[in-house]
């Protein structure tokens, strides 16, 4: 077992009011799993992703990664985990506009003090792995949205992390490009055996995962593998419609 969460909570103060972004999450995640996290806006999806990725600390409960409680680790240990064990992919790509694709990928290796030649070689290999070997010298403005997200994926993979976190990775893409990107992530997940955790509003994207959960008001409302129930897609779609106010 890679993760074990027990009654994990996260409380924020907004305009003097207490907001429970997570309200008692119980969850286990196995190594090598592809987990999709769904839910309406404000349901706690991104907050949960941030907790799992050691980018924020829970307010209560226990969040174990390989038996270590992330809530109790010092900032140095959390930084080490983020640097060596976790890779992150974001909806907005988060590429540096003045750097080439290869240089953007290389930035992930700078904290490791990797020599320039080795850094270039690893970046070239990572870009080749996502089908962008011939676009390595282009800056982001010269790349399509799908190509930019492929660069972001290469940047996340170049350090060979244990866990890949993707927060709405297809949110800025058209349907065809969405299919290509999710297909690529799924292929890389199967080939590399890394744990893949994806936050998405898109039920089709979530259906590709080996397991998916539905969050509502900071709580897990549904948790099943797609193959467990032929009605799962219908139920998730119905819940999404209710959350969005669709009758």
- Strand order across the largest sheet: 6-7-8-3-9-10
DSSP strand content? 25-35%
Number of DSSP strand runs:
10
Output the helix-strand order: EEEHEEHEHHHEHEHEEH
Shape: globular
Bin the helical content.
25-40%
Sheet with the most strands, sense and barrel status: 6 strands, mixed
With helices defined by DSSP (H or I, 4 residues minimum), what is the helix count? 8
- Alpha-carbon distance between the termini? 40 Å
Note poorly predicted spans: 228-232, 238-247
The radius of gyration computed from the alpha-carbon positions, rounded to a whole number of angstroms, is 18 Å
Nearest-integer average pLDDT: 90
Instruction: Name the structural class.
Output: alpha/beta
What would you note in describing this structure?
By secondary structure, this protein is α/β, with parallel strands linked by helices. It has a domain at 101-160. It is 35% helix and 27% strand. It contains 8 helices and 10 strands. The chain has helices spanning 45-52, 75-84, 101-106, 116-129, 145-157, 175-192, 203-207, 232-243, and strands at 3-14, 17-29, 34-39, 60-65, 68-69, 86-90, 163-167, 195-199, 211-216, 219-224. The strands form 2 sheets. Strands 6-7-8-3-9-10 form a 6-stranded mixed β-sheet, sandwiched between helices. It has a 4-stranded antiparallel β-sheet with strand order 2-1-4-5, with helices on one face. β1 and β2 (17-29) form a beta hairpin. α4 packs across α5 (145-157) and α5 runs parallel beside α6. The longest helix is centred in the C-terminal third of the chain and has 18 residues, at 175-192. It is globular.
